[in-house]
Amino acid sequence: MGRKWNNIKEKKASKDQSTSRINAKFGREIYVAAKSGEPDPESNRALKVVLERAKTYSVPKHIIEKAIDKAKGGGDENFDELRYEGFGPAGTMVIVDALTNNVNRTASDVRAAFGKNNGNMGVSGSVAYMFDSTAVIGLEGKTADEVLEILMEADIDARDILEEDETVIIYAEPDQFFAAQEALKAAGVEEFTVAELSMLPQTEVALTGDDIAKFEKLIDALEDLEDVQNVFHNADLGE
Description:
Elements: H1 2-16, H2 19-35, H3 45-56, H4 61-72, E1 80-87, E2 93-100, H5 103-115, E3 120-121, E4 131-140, H6 144-153, E5 160-164, E6 167-172, H7 177-186, E7 194-201, E8 205-206, H8 210-223, E9 228-233, E10 235-236
Parallel strand pairs: 8-10
Antiparallel strand pairs: 1-2, 1-3, 2-9, 4-6, 4-7, 5-6
Helix pairs in contact: 2-3, 2-4
């Protein structure tokens, strides 16, 4: 799963290039999660997931509080959660998750981003079946063997654990996302470098030459869209 972890790193590095953009996207996501239930992460699983992710992106406290306060105040904005699927250069597969208050606008923007960048939209289900919903947790300060022991003692069966550049990456079932974090926190882990509920590809497509530049242009175009929250893909860029 090493290349899959690189996909996570690539996504984070890309998003980190625009602090204002990532903060705006998280502000929207936190607002929607808080409005969907109680504005308390201890009783609202969706909100807790978003807040855990926000920590790894260093989203400022005032952005988080503003979004939650807006939800508490009965904000009248309503957003639909949408998923688009499509294909990029060399048969790569792409999943696009969005939050929008204008479905027609978002569909048009996503379709245009694919069409103008060597890709094309697929129908629902054309791509997602080749990805697995997975909890991805990253941490430093412990070895893979130590993490494995901690998780085994907590009766958590990770799909895979790997160590890379002094970072341990855990792949687990989505429903074990919080249990794994709590077990690690109890063992002295104070913060996580990654805390994602991600869509990881079952197989990857290795890109070379011009296809790499074409693919990166497509992903940039999709991530630049205001309504797009996450983009997942199965490209191996060979880095």
